Amino acid sequence: MNITLKIWRQKNKDDKGGFVKYQLDNVSTEMTFLEMLDYLNEKLVHEDNDEPVAFDSDCREGICGACGLYINGRPNGPQEGVTTCQLTMSAFKDGDTITVEPWRSKSFPVMKDLVVDRTAFDKLIEAGGYISVNTGAAPEANSIPVKKQNADRAFDAGICIGCGTCVASCKNASAMLFVSAKISQLALLPQGKVEAKERARNLVKTMDELGFGNCSNTGACEAECPKDIKLTNIARLNREYYKAY
Amino acid sequence: MAKLDSKIPEGPLSEKWTKHQASIKLVNPANKKKLDIIVVGAGAAGSSAAASLAELGYNVKVFVFQDSSRRAHSIASQGGINATKNYKNDSDSDFRLFYDMIKGGDFRAREANVYRAAEISNNIIDQYVAQGVPFAREYSGYLSNRSFGGVQVSRTFYAQGQTGQQCTLAAYQALARQIKAGKAKMYARRDMLDLVTIDGKARGIITRNLVNGEIERHGAHAVVLATGGFGTVYYLSTLAINSNGSAALAAYKKGALMANPSMAQIHPTCVPVLNDYQSKLTLMSESLRNDGRVWVPKEKGDKRPASEIKEEERDYYLERKYPAFGNLVPRDVASRAAKERCDEGYGVGETGLAVYLDFRDAINNQGKETIKAKYGNLFDLYKKVTSIDPYEEPMRIYPASHYTMGGLWVDYNLMTTIPGLYAIGEANFSDHGANRLGASSLMQCSGDGYFILPVTIGDFLADEIRTPKIETDTPEFEKAEKEAKDKINRLMSVNGKQSPTSFHKRLGLILWTYSGMKRNEEGLKKALAEIKELKEEFWKDVKVAGKADDMNHELEKAARIADFFDLATLIVTDALDRKESCGAHFREEYQTEEGEPQRDDKNFSYVSAWEYKGEDEEPELYKEKLKFEFVTPIQRSYK
Asked: Which member of A4, A16, B521, B531 has the lowest number of beta carbons within 10 Å of its beta carbon?
């Protein structure tokens, strides 16, 4: 099929940036979205003597969280429950115009084209998204029984891949879903309860300092999250936060 | 041969590590504060090492090419992590795990290292549980286990199909805590271009800042490489597309020996190649073979849908050929068997390069919900990639490049032949011999990072407490920086016509064809010649778009591919030298009547360690003779 791409091009973080249109022919529906961009880049470089479009990606199987693009106004495009690398071109049809933008959030500044800086997520984890146990100080694993239900819920929250879809989809650019996933995982486990109050306080404070917006319960983050992280985590974060004061 | 001192402690197997720890040199806490350590790569091995070293008081600098160390490819490890807890009361023990790994590796690994890996496996589980890893649990609240290929006990701890993600994030979080405490500093989006040695010791690295292209110098008292494996040399692999072998190759070129480079694992259960555009292959965890049955039609070229092929028309070839282990034979055996069936014309799917992995019986026996609880996310992943629903139809799978057992040669302290340079995790060669068993990579990475390196690095650093901070305005750094810049400039100035990726594809095809699951002398020699030609063509005709002083993914790719030529040459050279079959290294000339690998213990019971002798020169081979004091090498049998 033949498609038209409208892609955000921006030289560096200080550049104003803007959309550039590209016509791309002979796109296969079997390609993933990122393979389609690889194909575009190959064409740009070798036929048009142009600079390739910069975008992040690594594992290309939906687990590392490196990719993530705003496609036709939706994070990760029109398919449900996928990261951008898992999106396939079968979601589009011949003649489509596809608009591709980077994540848009003050806390994720654009570095080049579609590449954004998500170190704010690392800063959040550094603020207390861990259990303070030094290597060697752990007790025997089965000395801490954990209710299966809680272990499963902790897992469901712990599978967040830190891609930033939640922030990108939120009208307030809030990081509540990301923060609440980590808070939930650790608060649900007995090992994590010791530092629960400090953790909730520090993560929320840091979230504000980093310029993320607040949550107004729209639920776009849950709807768009490729890993199906639930809003109930935000409820749990709020509860943990209230308990912390 | 003085070069290869493995430093294996004397004494009984089960006492070696304890004795070694008790006799190793120590660095007192006040002195640790004065010592800097560079860690390159921060997956399960690098993050756990960096965090543990920082906890001890060292100053740690961490370098990763990703935007965050949480994205390192350990994150994609699926099935689990082994430990000898014996929670199942099924007679597991350190010795059994050790023996399974030694045998699984076809008697080409070091006894002492492997035993230590088994010995500390329980501490790793304790550590991860304390850090909040949500491993699978029974309704009692206690930890659950499952079994994995090549073994007959259930010793694998798991978090659905995302065990690697959960463990890697726990290590990442431990490191985040040390970054917050100011003991570790993260340098993200950096490629290591070279290693700097001063007076023969590793003292720093040269990096390229991937945001602005700046070439940087970083000094330290010791350097740790935790840069993973180089399975991407085959182009299509289960690795992340940016995984590479450049740091290891840089160390090799600075004098570190490369061990067993030809020992590359082709994983049996991956989503098959679907089309020419494909940029990577997706792994389907080995754990699926616990309940999935592998089969092909008995009739050649039978193209009917699986559901129409009756039970008696199906060939469950693994169960047929290996009744004792059935679908749970080790990876090398399963991969070769799949290739053999497909080469004979029994393969399924459009390309005929696939076999079925079928859950029909498991779903009938255990119910869909049970199967969903065990493998739900893997089934979802499979469906996303292929649009086939594995609850309804069998999965189609085929082998793909996955893991490198070979890597930098290290002694018992995990130090390479360059004093002060360490290699941990997949980057070293030490624990998996000629074939790695499932769920033992996370185990080895974490063991190296949390429990071994933090102890053994003291042996070197104890003599460095009088060495002042390593300054980078020295001739050694200057020279290394200049060489790195020259290479970049050379790449940028070729200005040919072909893309870096097109060369990578061609290189991968050469290796896959001649140095993949089956190898022979004629093919390997052909591969050597073809790689050489392709390398020459690359340096004449590659086109690297963009600028050197800017974010430039094409340049990153080109630099890595330039190194892959040299790695590929080393892989093939090693495969040619080893005139025997063992584990994943299958030389067609050396096989038993039944088509199994035929080892030659008399002549090849050694670790090959290659020394760099200059650009396009033949490397020199050193042999570390393997001594088996505690087990007797036997012909591996899974029948």
From this structure: A16
